[in-house]
From TrEMBL:
Residues 442-531 form the Cwf19-like protein C-terminal domain. Pfam families: CwfJ_C_1, CwfJ_C_2. It comes from Ceyx cyanopectus (Indigo-banded kingfisher). CDD domains: MPP_CWF19_N (cd07380). InterPro entries: Cwf19-like (IPR040194), Cwf19-like_C_dom-1 (IPR006768), Cwf19-like_C_dom-2 (IPR006767), HIT-like_sf (IPR036265). This is CWF19-like protein 1. One of its GO terms (biological process) is mRNA splicing, via spliceosome. Coiled coil: none annotated. Residues 314-422 form the Cwf19-like C-terminal domain. One of its GO terms (molecular function) is RNA lariat debranching enzyme activator activity. Residues 255-279, 294-321 are annotated as: Disordered. PANTHER family: CWF19, CELL CYCLE CONTROL PROTEIN (PTHR12072), CWF19-LIKE PROTEIN 1 (PTHR12072:SF4). GO terms for cellular component: post-mRNA release spliceosomal complex. Belongs to the CWF19 family. The lineage of its organism: Eukaryota, Metazoa, Chordata, Craniata, Vertebrata. The gene is Cwf19l1.
Length: 535
C-alpha cells in the first residue's frame, strides 16, 4: 500500500516564517512529507507583512499546505472565495465545508469556522444546517465506512469523557456539540483541532459497541497548540497513513490495547426519555442514617434540607425487593455489624464468611440487581469506592480483584478481594481466571479497559464479570448453568491465594463477635481513605 506522510499544525496566526522554518527542519531530518494540514486560525491580527511575501510569490511554502477558513470577522478578508481557492502558491483554502480527496484516495473531511447559534451563520462560523448537509453528503456515499481525516478548528464537546486527562480544559463546556455529532457519524481515523492553545492527544476511541456491533476502525483525536508558543507545547504533528479504501479490512479494524469507549455516544440510560419530575411523596436520594436498634431502619435525610426542596437531586428510584433482602441497608435482614462505610448511594460491608478478613463488598443502598441497572449517581459513587479501596489496599502492599455475579442473586454485590502484591501479578490473576474458565467451558472474554460494562451487557442479562486493579476486565454472558462460587474458587486456587478450603463462604462463617472485631479493625484502617467521612 502507498503510505502517505502528513503533517498537521495548530493555530498559525500569521507566523508563517516560524512554521515553514520548522517544516523545512523536519523534512531535512526525517525526509519529505506530502502535505501540511492547518487547523485553527491560519491568520492573526498582524499577518499582513509576512503574508504579502507569499502572495506576491517572493516566498513559497515548502510543501502543499491546506488551511481552514476564518474563525473571526477580522480575518474573513483573507479568504476571497467561500467554496475554497488557492491563496498563494502551495497554500490552498479548503472552503467552508466538504470532502477533499486527492489522487491518493485519502479522504479528508473539513469544516471551517466556529459554531454559530443562529441561521444563517456569519462567514466565520458554521451552523447546524452546515453540519447536517456535510454529514448527509458523506453518509449517503455507497459503502461509507468513515473518513481518513477530519479537520475542524474547535474541539468536539465532551472529547474528554472516558479519556486520559485533558489538563486545564473542561471538555464538558469547551468545544462544539455539532462537531461531536459530526465526528460520531463520519468516524474519522484522525481528527485534528486547535484554538485552545494546548496540545492533547486523546487515547483512541472505538466506533462500535463491543459484542453488539461489528468491529470498526478506531478514531484518534489530536488537538494542537499555536505555532511558536512560548510554553513549547507541540504544534506540529507528523503521522503516516494508508487510505482506508486501500487497507485490508482486518487491519483497518484492529483495536489497540488502550482503546476507550466512544466519548460522544449517548449511553442507553441517557437515551431513555427524561424521567418525570420528583413527586411530592418521594424523598430525595440523599444519605440515610439508620436507627440500628429498631426493626425497620428509620430514615432521615442527612443534608438537613426539608422535603419541600425545589429541585432535590433525584436518582432513578430503585425497584423494591420482592421479599426480604439481606443487602438493602434499610432491611432488618442486614448484618449491620459488618458495615464499614456508608456513602450517599452505596455502602461497604465485610463479606460474610470472607475469603480473607479484609474481603469487602461494595453494595448499593437501594435495591439494584446489577451494575447495569444502576443510575449514574450510584455508578459515580461505586467508582469512588473502587479508587479508595485500590489506594487503601496498595498502602497495605496488596492489589484488589473485583468480581460480580449477576446470576441467582437479587441485590448487586461487588466482591473486592485483596491479593498480596508479592504473591502474584495482575497477569497471573487474569491467566488463572481464563484458564479455569476454559476448563469449565466458560467463555470469559476480555473487554477493553476503558469500556463500560453497560455497553456489553443488556439490563436483565445474567453475567459474570471480573475487574483487575489495572483496569483490565473479563466478561462472561451466562446462558445456562454457572458455578455459583466460581470467582471465589479461582482466587482460592493454589495458583493464587492457595485457600481451596475457603472457596464456599458457607464453610467460612465466623462468630458474630469475631466478625464485628474484623469490621472495627477495617473501619479504623480504612478511615484515612474513606471519602464518605469527608463528605
Amino acid at each position: 500500500h502507498a503510505v502517505f506522510r502528513r503533517l498537521a499544525c495548530g493555530d498559525v496566526e500569521g507566523r508563517l516564517e516560524a512554521l515553514f522554518g520548522r517544516v523545512r527542519a523536519i523534512q531535512g531530518k526525517s525526509g519529505p512529507f506530502d502535505m501540511l494540514l492547518c487547523v485553527g486560525s491560519f491568520f492573526g491580527p498582524d499577518s499582513e507583512t509576512e503574508w504579502a511575501e507569499y502572495c506576491t510569490g517572493a516566498k513559497k511554502a515548502p510543501i502543499p499546505t491546506y488551511v481552514l477558513g476564518a474563525n473571526d470577522q477580522d480575518t474573513v478578508r483573507y479568504f476571497p472565495d467561500v467554496s475554497g481557492c488557492e491563496l498563494a502558491e502551495n497554500i490552498t483554502y479548503l472552503g467552508r465545508r466538504g470532502l477533499y480527496s486527492g489522487s491518493s484516495g485519502l479522504q479528508i473531511a473539513y469544516l471551517s469556522g466556529t459554531e454559530s447559534q443562529g441561521e444563517p451563520a456569519p462567514a466565520c462560523s458554521f451552523s447546524a444546517k452546515d453540519v447536517e448537509e456535510l454529514k448527509t453528503s458523506l453518509l449517503s456515499t455507497p459503502g461509507f465506512k468513515g473518513v481518513d481525516i477530519l479537520l475542524t478548528s474547535p474541539w468536539p464537546r465532551d472529547v474528554g469523557t472516558f479519556a486520559n486527562s485533558v489538563g486545564e480544559i473542561n471538555t464538558k463546556k469547551c468545544g462544539s456539540k455539532l462537531i461531536s455529532d459530526l465526528a460520531v457519524n463520519i468516524k474519522p481515523r484522525y481528527h485534528f483541532a486547535a484554538l485552545e492553545k494546548t496540545y492533547y492527544e486523546r487515547l483512541p476511541y472505538r466506533n462500535h459497541v463491543v459484542l453488539q456491533e461489528t468491529p470498526q476502525h478506531v478514531s484518534r483525536f489530536i488537538a494542537l497548540a499555536d505555532v511558536g508558543n512560548s510554553s513549547k507545547k507541540k504544534y506540529l504533528y507528523a503521522f503516516s497513513i494508508v487510505p482506508m479504501s486501500s487497507m485490508d479490512p482486518a487491519d483497518l479494524v484492529k483495536q489497540p490495547q488502550d482503546v476507550t469507549e466512544n466519548p460522544y455516544r449517548k449511553t442507553q440510560k441517557e437515551r431513555q426519555k427524561k424521567k418525570p419530575p420528583l413527586c411530592a411523596e418521594e424523598e430525595p436520594a440523599c444519605q440515610f442514617f439508620f436507627d440500628l436498634q429498631k426493626q425497620q431502619g428509620k430514615k432521615r435525610p442527612s443534608d438537613g434540607k426539608e422535603r419541600g426542596n425545589s429541585q432535590p437531586k433525584q436518582a432513578k428510584k430503585p425497584p423494591q425487593p420482592t421479599g426480604p433482602c439481606w443487602f438493602c441497608l434499610a432491611s432488618p435482614e442486614v448484618e449491620k455489624h459488618l458495615v464499614v462505610s456508608i456513602g450517599t448511594h452505596c455502602y461497604l460491608a465485610l463479606a460474610k464468611g470472607g475469603l480473607l478478613p479484609d474481603h469487602v463488598l461494595i453494595l448499593p443502598i437501594g435495591h439494584y440487581q446489577s451494575v447495569v441497572d444502576l443510575s449514574s449517581e450510584v455508578v459515580e459513587e461505586v467508582t469512588k469506592y473502587k479508587s479508595a479501596l485500590k489506594e487503601f489496599f496498595r498502602s497495605k502492599g496488596k492489589r484488589y480483584v473485583l468480581f460480580e455475579r449477576n446470576y441467582r442473586s437479587q441485590h448487586l454485590q461487588l466482591q473486592v478481594v485483596p491479593v498480596p502484591l508479592d504473591h502474584c501479578t495482575s497477569e497471573d490473576i487474569k491467566e488463572s481466571f481464563i484458564a479455569q474458565a476454559q476448563e469449565q467451558q466458560i467463555e470469559l472474554l476480555e473487554i477493553p479497559e476503558y469500556s463500560d460494562i453497560m455497553q456489553v451487557a443488556q439490563p436483565g442479562t445474567p453475567y459474570f464479570y471480573v475487574e483487575l486493579d489495572t483496569g483490565e476486565k473479563l466478561f462472561h454472558r451466562i446462558r445456562g448453568r454457572f458455578p455459583l462460587h466460581f470467582g471465589r474458587a479461582v482466587l482460592a486456587s493454589p495458583a493464587l491465594l492457595a485457600l481451596p478450603e475457603r472457596a464456599d463462604w458457607r464453610l467460612c462463617a465466623a462468630e458474630r463477635e469475631e466478625e464485628a472485631e474484623h469490621a472495627r479493625a477495617f473501619r479504623r484502617d480504612f478511615q484515612p481513605f474513606d471519602f464518605a467521612l469527608r463528605a
